Each structure stands twice: as C-alpha cells, then as structure tokens.
Amino acid sequence: MGDFTEYSQGYSLSMTIEQRVYVGVSPRQDGQIRFSSREYNEKKKTIPGNLKFRKEDRWANIPKGALSLVYPQLSSDQGLDISVASDIPQSMGLGSSQALALASVLAFSEYFKLYYSREQVLTIALLVETQFLGLPTGASAFRVFSEAQRGNLLLLDHRSGEVESLPLRLSDGQIYIFNSRVPSASFESPSPGDLKDLDLVARFLSRGRIGKTLRDFTRSDLRDKVGDIPESSRRRSLHVVEENLRVFEMRNLIENQDWQSFSRLMSRSHESLRDLYEVSCPEVDWLVKRLGENSAFWGSRFTSTGTGGTVITIGHKNALESFSSQMEEYERIFGFHIEVLLTEPSEGVLIHKV
Where are the alpha helices (DSSP H) in 74-139? Predict the structure, then answer.
C-alpha cells in the first residue's frame, strides 16, 4: 500500500516476495563479457570497452549497466561470464528489473572485492535504472529489497528514509498475486507530467514556502482549493494524501489482525487508484470486485506502478479452490488466462559464495 506516494515524500507499506533473481559472476580467459539468461534462453556478449546500452540486448542491459557503473576500469583482458536466473514473473510490476539491478551491483561489488556499503549499493542500483536505462524509477524498491526480513512488511518514510518492520502473522492465510495478463498499454500509467503536477499542487498549497510536499497537507486543504487546481491534478493529489493515511491505518489493522477492516481498507485503496489516480482498467476492476465477493479472500487491490495489471490479495490457504469458476469466467469475458502466484514476505538480498 502507498502506490505513488514516494514522489511526494509520503509513506508506503511494502514487502519482498519469496521469488528471487540470481546473478552469478565467474572469470573467462578470452577478454569477452558474456551474459546468459535461463528464462529467456538467450546469450549476449560484449567487450570491456563497450559497456553501452543497446536496445537489442534487452535484459542484458541491466547487468551491463551495473558493470559499467561498478567497475568501469575493467581491462581488455578481463573476461566475465555473467549468468542470470529468476523465478519472478516478468511484466507484472513486481520489481523484477530493480531486483536484477540490485543483485547485479552487489554481485560485481563482491566479485571485484569493492565491498560497497549498503547505501553505495542502493545508489548505484538506482543509477542503473535512471541513468543507464533511462527509467523513471524511485529508490524505495531498492531499499525494500535490501532491508526486508522474512515474515515482515516494511513501512517506509520516503522523506526521512526510516524503515519500520511490521510482522505479518498469517496462521491460516496466504498471499496471492493475480496477474490479469492485461498488456501495459491497455491501462493508464503515471507520466512524468503527472508527477510534476503533484509537485505544482504542493507548491500552490504551500503558498511559496520551500520544502513542502503533499504529505504536509490534508483533504481539507485540497477541498478548499476546488476550482483553483486542475481537477485531474486535484484528484491525484487527493489519492496521495489519503493513501498516506491508509498506510498507517493498515499498520494498526495488521498489528491487531483485524482482517475484516483490512478487507474494507484494501477496497478503498483500490477505489482510490481507480477513481482518483486513474491507473486501473476494466479487467483489473472486475477481478478485484469478484475477489471481494468471495468470503475466502480478505481484501484485494491493484498493485503496480504502471508496468503490469496485477492484483494482490490475502485469503485462506485453500481459497483458490473457491475461485476457479470466476477465473474461467474472466478468461471467457476478457480473453486472458489468469496467472496466480502464491508467496509470502521474504528476506531481501543475499550473497552466496562458491
């Protein structure tokens, strides 16, 4: 919870899933750098002096970018074999790209015995995404990946950088992630212009005072400015303001294991993403509604940053058995076959030396 609050220095409640990405590094003697991917069944290659972005290299650009930033002084006779494997589903908005960037930076840091600090690793991983790949990525995913603990959610303060661990006790529960299979182009995703609009709204509300963001304002502040702010910008800003409040309400509900109220709050968060931030689509809305009608599930919402039509929910461990007919109905109506991922909060980045 807390989608799109990072850019206004807000709060979010996140976790890492137990599915992982692996990066292995070993030397080779011919001066070539070779990348191999188990999932794509592909191999790419380059040489130390040519660590540049190439569109046709696709997934290999991520470890290539990490290598160019971690160890640009690689000599012409230093060859490497770089192997990538992952069981994180692609194009679901689950952070597979950021996970690969972070794993690559850490793998090269260890291989070349640079022993970067945690903050250095996070900074370089962010640069892989923003500088080398040119993607509008925030820093929060990397912090979650680095600090996550098994069985815990993380509450992030995007202004101070503080992280609070929150145990998620699911004795008879299971986290389900539903991939609607809707292509990213089928639903709206936030643009750099949307984020700039949020900043302009905060400046307008702060009346020229420096350092204020949307987290410093209330729903009343936005209601008082109806007509003074473009309606689309006001709605998105209202989502951010209210989502920050929902993050703390969610923390209390999880601590008290109040799953009935949890379900209602998840629904309100989804409605806000749909109606105020306008990032959902009919297929996802249909799926969230049907999950909400099934008593075996305890609340569902869209979860993504515009790169996948993914729904997250918590339900009983055998809840899928009661949802099979709705999944078949979804495929008949929309033509997409739902993929379901069962997961739990897991630890973050790990180093394996062999």
Answer: 96-111, 118-127
Which amino acid is located at 205 in the chain?
L
Contacts 24+ apart (CB under 8 A), 188-193: 188/278, 188/279, 188/281, 188/306, 189/279, 189/305, 189/306, 189/307, 190/4, 190/277, 190/279, 190/305, 190/306, 192/136
CATH architecture of structural domain 17-147 = 2-Layer Sandwich (3.30)
Contact 242, 250 (CB under 8 A): no
CATH code at 170-343? 3.30.70.890
Residues of the chain with CATH 3.30.70.890: 170-343
Q: What angle do CA 287, 198, 160 make, to 5 degrees?
A: 95
| pLDDT tens, position by position, 108-159 | 999 999 989 999 999 999 999 999 999 888 888 899 998 999 999 999 999 9
* Residue pair 3/14 in contact by the 8 Å Cβ criterion: no
Asked if 273 contacts 31 with a C-beta cutoff of 8 angstroms, the reply is no
Question: What single letter denotes the amino acid at residue 272?
Answer: S
Most trustworthy range by pLDDT among 60-64, 111-115, 193-197, 307-311 = 60-64
**Neighbouring-strand partners of residue 238:** none
Domain with CATH 3.30.230.10 in the chain: 17-147
Instruction: State pTM to two decimals.
Output: 0.88
Taking alpha carbons only, the member of 193, 189, 155 closest to residue 10 is 155
Q: Kindly give the interhelix angle for 231-255 and 192-206, rounded to the nearest 10 degrees.
A: 90
